[in-house]
Amino acid sequence: MKRNGRFKGRSICVVGDLSADEQRYLYRKARELKAELGAGGDAAGFRIADPDYSAYLVFLENSTRTRESFRNAALFHRVRATMFDAASSSFAKNESLTDAIKMLVGYAPESCFVIRSKLEGVCGWLADYLGPWAERSGYARPSFINAGDGKHEHPTQEFLDEFSFLEQLGWKDERIHLALIGDLRHGRTVHSKADGLRIFKDVVVDLVAPPELAMPPEYVARMRRNGFEVREWGSLDEYLASGKAAAIWYFTRLQLERMGESVLEKAPALRRAVTFRRDMLDRLPDGARFYHPLPRDRLAPTIPGFLDDTALNAWDAQSANGYYTRAVQMAMLSGAIGDDFEGEGPASRPDDEAFVVEAAINPRSKPEYKVGIKPVESGLVIDHIASGEPIEEIWNRVDKIRRVLGLNLRSSHGVYHTNSGAYKGIVSVPDLLSFGEKELKRLGAASPGCTLNLVQDGAVVRKYRLGMPPRIYNFDDIACRNENCVSHPSHQEHVETSFERRRGGDAFVCRWCEREHSYSEIWRD
Ligand code: NCD
């Protein structure tokens, strides 16, 4: 059977790699698969059923449910499945992950990699780098599935969670009101909710965590940008006292392995704030159900064992759903299903060019640009550098422009008054008249807000105003500040550093781990 579904060769690195419509398609298919298998059917229409298709399960951090549900899903698909873990493979031999995976791509005509790693953004990087490499080398574009990357995301857990919520809500997606409880700071499954809950039209999220374990502000902001109503409480007692509790409670454990010393010391008190107690039972709203990505801490579970055999237990059925939803994701990415999808795909990446705007020239104004004391007759003048910033910053920016553009030519630079009395930098380069698109991008990245003037025979003939570029990449002196990011220089994965400006804002988001940076933070000190 030909596998040519529209998801073939795609990857699931973050929840947003599937649009809301595509996520709905996944839930519909998983529901069909679950029903068919539940009725004793063979579900042949879902299977990859190709012994040459390779599924690699690369688990460099511990996992039980995620790994086993993927392994079983691979068995369901009747494909070649290979397991790797940190201890028993060449990944322990100081080899870069990029090299190791590249080698594996060469062992089968088509492959899918399910990867759990502490390196945040690793799947996005591998998909971007090895996809084109595989095609150039005569293999099908491999798919990557993120099975949890550090504190970043856990999209396949998110999909099984949403599937479970929909199942409880009778497949209605009008409205969801849920509480996220526990370690919202380090838990990746709750971070993925910021995009995963978008399949509901109306979303109210209650965050219940003491400040040390609070949801990172960038995820709260993302939830709000996605139109969710977000409310916050510091403990379960406060939450229940508010009288506003949701019926869907999503607990997480304290991620002790990711905590710094200072938070770790307080762990018992923090855990108490988010652990359910017997005396809370009669304050729960009608129809309350508890979810948990699991595992629960055996010694100090946030959902205690006395609730296991009560109607509150939704977590057992939830974890079983991992099998169906993951089997469907593998079917989608292999192209076995997907032809019957209807709806919109994911949003495109930001446009590279839009930040350069040609500005009008006043034909009567006399250019005052000078090299030292001589006016520029012919050449380039970069003006309004860091206009209005403190003088030290302006000089830094002038330095950066010279460095980034390699302007080691006859030229001059200086800091001058602007018309409004503040300061700005100017760099003038006589005789240089060609300035390619690449240089324009580099200039915009090094000094957003400046203008570039082309002067000929003593007159400005062209003027460009450079805004904040939508992407900054391919510079030696930029780096992501997140030490767990796959692109962080300490990991030696030789990943290209790349930032994308958030639409409508000034924050620069690392292309791989999505950590937000201000403009000045992206440059190495
Ligand atoms: C979660 C994870 O690994 O992020 N577990 C899982 O995949 N089911 C949650 C956790 O470890 O607490």
Q: What do these coordinates show?
A:
43% of the residues are buried. The protein has 525 residues and is of the alpha/beta class. The model has no long low-confidence stretch (mean pLDDT 91). It is globular. It folds into three domains: 15-154 and 322-334, Rossmann fold (3-Layer(aba) Sandwich); 160-315, Aspartate/ornithine carbamoyltransferase (Rossmann fold, 3-Layer(aba) Sandwich); 356-469, 2-Layer Sandwich (Alpha-Beta Plaits). The strands form five sheets. The chain has a six-stranded antiparallel β-sheet, covered by helices on one side. Strands 7-6-5-8-9 form a five-stranded parallel β-sheet. It has a four-stranded parallel β-sheet with strand order 2-1-3-4, sandwiched between helices. The longest helix is centred in the middle third of the chain and has 20 residues, at 315-334. Helix 1 packs across helix 12 and helix 5 crosses helix 12 (315-334). It has helices spanning 20-38, 65-77, 97-105, 122-136, 155-168, 188-191, 193-196, 217-225, 236-241, 261-265, 267-273, 315-334, 391-404, 437-446, and strands at residues 53-59, 80-85, 110-117, 143-149, 175-181, 202-208, 229-233, 248-251, 289-291, 356-358, 370-371, 374-375, 379-385, 412-417, 423-430, 451-456, 459-466, 471-473, 498-501, 508-510, 516-517. A hairpin with a 2-residue loop joins strand 11 and strand 12 (374-375). N-carbamoyl-L-aspartate (NCD) binds at residues 65-66, 148, 154, 157, 188-189, 252-253, 293-294.
